Amino acid sequence: MIERPTTLDYIGKIFSNFFELHGDRYFRDDKSIVGGIATLNTKPVTVIGIQKGKNLKENIERNFGCPNPDGYRKALRLMKQAEKFNRPIICFINTSGAYCGVEAEERGQGEAIARNLIEMARIKVPIISIIIGEGGSGGALALACGDRVWMLENSVYSILSPEGFASILFKDPSKSQEVAEIMGITSYELLEKGVIEKIIKEPKGGAHKNINLVAASIKEELIKELKILESKTKEELLEERYKRFRKFS
Question: Which EC class does it fall in (predicted)?
Answer without folding.
Answer: transferase
